[in-house]
Design a protein that fits this description.
The longest helix has 23 residues. Helix 6 crosses helix 7. The relative contact order is 0.13. This protein has seven helices and nine strands, in the order βααββββββαααβααβ. The chain has a four-stranded antiparallel sheet, covered by helices on one side. A three-stranded antiparallel sheet has the order 5-6-7, covered by helices on one side. It is elongated and about 70 Å long. It is an alpha+beta fold. 42% of the residues lie in helices and 17% in strands.
Length: 254
């Protein structure tokens, strides 16, 4: 239980820390990208922006992997709600809504459950482990907020199906159909073979310097078309839980 959230904990959400093997794999991948980009630069690959982007992407991956960040924890009890070391009375929660947010102008927009308190708004990122428990807990403790069940919320269901695009954490029991990695790899390989047999000969000798770019573009287009024909979709969502009708301990004045 969070020492900054007095009382019995009802729900907890936090971003899980990647295991050491996962972090090591990401660091190795980032270093490999940096080396590949530098190799392309040494070979004089054109246009210059492609190898430079590979080097930059690899360096950012290594930086994000090695950077140590303290996980932000949300916790809810019958009388309190906390974010990290900051705690507020649950009665101060005025509204809850699903929307997009970003912490800074250079960061991407992310889906979040926005908790509107008296003078501030806390974004509960749907990429946190346990966001669904906090959602259910708020529905039970503050029914007057009329927060719908996430299992029936069309916006949440759409986000769950597109979880890889938006980084949404899947709740237990939710099953999502994902396009087959093997099938996408075969499709990309066939597209590259087609480009090598027909596209490059048609372009002539001038296409030799553009060969990596052409192969990458053809493979990417093939994978994109495959994902349009076989998009991610929800296969199973657990049934809604029964809402508690017990008195609300957090809605009255203290």
């Amino acid at each position: 239980m969070n020492p900054h959230t007095p009382g019995r904990s009802c729900a907890r959400a936090e971003r899980p820390v990647p295991r050491p093997p996962v972090r090591l794999g990401r660091a190795v991948l980032g270093l490999a990208l940096v080396g590949l980009g530098l190799r392309f630069l040494a070979l004089g690959m054109t246009p210059f922006l492609i190898p430079a982007a590979i080097v930059l992407g690899g360096a950012l991956l290594v930086y994000e992997t090695l950077r140590v960040r303290k996980p932000l924890v949300y916790e809810v009890s019958p009388l309190w709600i906390s974010r990290g070391s900051d705690a507020r009375r649950l009665a101060a929660l005025r509204a809850v809504r699903l929307d997009w947010y970003r912490a800074a102008s250079w960061q991407p927009w992310r889906p979040a459950l926005l908790l509107e308190l008296a003078r501030e708004t806390w974004p509960l990122d749907l990429g946190l482990e346990g966001w669904y428990d906090v959602w259910d807990c708020l529905r039970e403790l503050r029914p007057e907020l009329e927060l719908p069940d996430w299992r029936r919320h069309p916006g949440v269901l759409k986000l769950l199906a597109q979880r890889r695009r938006h980084g949404v954490r899947l709740p237990p029991g939710v099953v999502v159909h994902e396009p087959s990695i093997a099938a996408m790899s075969v499709t990309a390989g066939l597209a590259v073979a087609f480009a090598e047999l027909f596209v490059l000969p048609a372009l002539g000798p001038a296409a030799a310097s553009w060969e990596p770019l052409i192969f990458s573009g053809v493979a990417g287009l093939a994978v994109w078309l495959y994902t349009r024909l076989d998009p991610p979709r929800l296969n199973h969502v657990p049934p809604p839980k029964n809402r508690s009708r017990s008195p609300n301990p957090g809605s009255g004045r203290m």
